[in-house]
């Protein structure tokens, strides 16, 4: 389950990242033009990126024709193609561990009380994935400039892509 969502340089959200902790019930409220819709659109954009591998959506798969994202050029902060959008998803690792250990004879651990052992071992571990999406003037489309992942806010791996060199 996603436990937190952070975004920057998306629509009304500028250089200062906005982090939203997600609970079973999460309420967004505030004055008009406070950025509530930007948060919801950013969540739709994250869905498009991670589920549909679409970095430049005009429409949202979830929102259909009712939600016009307008593509990267329209939703990067201030329509400034020199900026990059940053999206970070945080989640509990226990959900992944529960999935892996749900098999009757797990190849990952042979323990008579494996479920409790796994719960105790991984209960406090959180994971994150962060991507930085930038615009390439060469190809006139967005690309993932940086992909980072880690545990408990400690970076484990980073992959950077240089569009000019066409290599990661």
Summarize the structure in words.
The strands form two sheets. This protein has a six-stranded antiparallel sheet with strand order 2-1-5-6-7-8. A two-stranded antiparallel sheet has the order 3-4. The chain is built from four helices and eight strands. The longest helix is centred in the first third of the chain and has 17 residues, at 36-52. The chain is α+β, with helices and mostly antiparallel strands and 168 residues long. Helix content is 22%, strand content 33%.
Task: Summarize the entry for a quick read.
By secondary structure, the protein is α+β, with helices and mostly antiparallel strands.
What's the N-to-C terminus distance? 29 Å
The count of strands amounts to 8
Proportion of beta-strand residues: 25-35%
Poorly predicted runs: none
Q: Sheet bearing the most strands, described?
A: 6 strands, antiparallel
Give the topology string: H per helix, E per strand: EEHEEHEHHEEE
Please state the CA-atom Rg, rounded to the nearest Å: 18 Å
Number of helices: 4
Within the largest sheet, what's the order of strands? 2-1-5-6-7-8
Average per-residue pLDDT, rounded, comes to 84
Q: Pairing-aware structural class of the strands and helices?
A: alpha+beta
The gross shape turns out to be globular
Q: How much helicity do the residues have?
A: 10-25%
